[in-house]
Each structure stands twice: as C-alpha cells, then as structure tokens.
Design a protein that fits this description.
Largest sheet: none
Mean pLDDT: 89
Low-confidence stretches: none
Number of helices: 3
Strand content: under 5%
Oligomer: single chain
Distance between the termini: 35 Å
Order of helices and strands: HHH
Number of strands: 0
Structural class: mainly alpha
Helix content: 55-70%
Shape: flat
Length: about 70
C-alpha cells in the first residue's frame, strides 16, 4: 500500500528517517511534485471559482499568508 503525506520541507528529513527505521516500511522516499500536477490543480481551482464553488484569495491575501508562513518557519 502507498500513502502520500505532505509535510514542511524542513521536517522531511526527520520524517523519512523515522519511517525508514520502522520494520514494516518497505520504502520511504522524498518525491518532488511535478509542475504539471500543480498546474492541473490550479486549473481545477479556477474552474471551481468561476462556477462560484470556491473563493480564491487575492494577491494581497496570498502575500500575507506567505509572510505569516515565513514568520513561523523562522
């Protein structure tokens, strides 16, 4: 069975070592998302936004979120 887990990049190494130390884990590796996957997800979000099913953030909200994330990582 495969399980996908998304974590902060700063914690990826720790989690990989932990998983590798478990005797029942056959394989643990870090996988970088492909650009096409991100683009596909973004297009889905735009479609949902146009249908009124999803509220997207404006540029200012995105910038503020990024600034808050940076503060928490420091």
């Amino acid at each position: 069975m495969k399980i996908l887990v998304e974590v902060k990049e700063s914690k990826a190494g720790f989690l990989l070592e932990l998983l590798k130390s478990l005797p029942f884990v056959r394989k643990a590796q870090q996988v970088k998302p492909r650009a096409a996957d991100g683009l596909r997800e973004g297009l889905k979000e735009v479609k949902l936004h146009r249908e009124g099913k999803l509220k997207l953030k404006n540029a200012r909200e995105v910038f503020e979120d990024l600034a808050r994330q940076q503060e928490h990582e420091d």
